[in-house]
Amino acid sequence: MNILFVCSRNQWRSPTAEKIYKNRSDLTVKSAGTEPSARNRLTAKNINWADLIFVMEKKHKQRMVEKFPFETGQKQIIILHIPDEYTYMDPELVEDIKTKVDEYIQK
């Protein structure tokens, strides 16, 4: 399964999620950001590649749908409701991501 994690700048939250799940043999994961300043910017190609998309906040889904209406039309986009108040691999962030994502990607 191809999973895409999205936040604003692809600096802390989505790269943390990518790192958590990157070594699972049943998953291929990527991360991207919605802002022009993002480390890895969200593209139509990312969205088309993904089987499942997790966004950290509602605004990320809104930006995706506005910018890529055709690509997001049939995609399952899950809002994790994780605010931008963590640093990369923050233990609380890791726990929050695992708790919310694992129910969608059972082993």
UniProtKB/TrEMBL annotation:
Database matches in Pfam families: LMWPc (PF01451)
Species: Rhodocytophaga aerolata
Protein name: Protein tyrosine phosphatase
Matches recorded under InterPro entries: Ptyr_pPase (IPR023485), Ptyr_pPase_sf (IPR036196), UCP029416_PTP (IPR016919)
SUPFAM superfamilies in the cross-refs: Phosphotyrosine protein phosphatases I
Coiled coil (UniProt feature): none
Phosphotyrosine protein phosphatase I domain location: 1-107
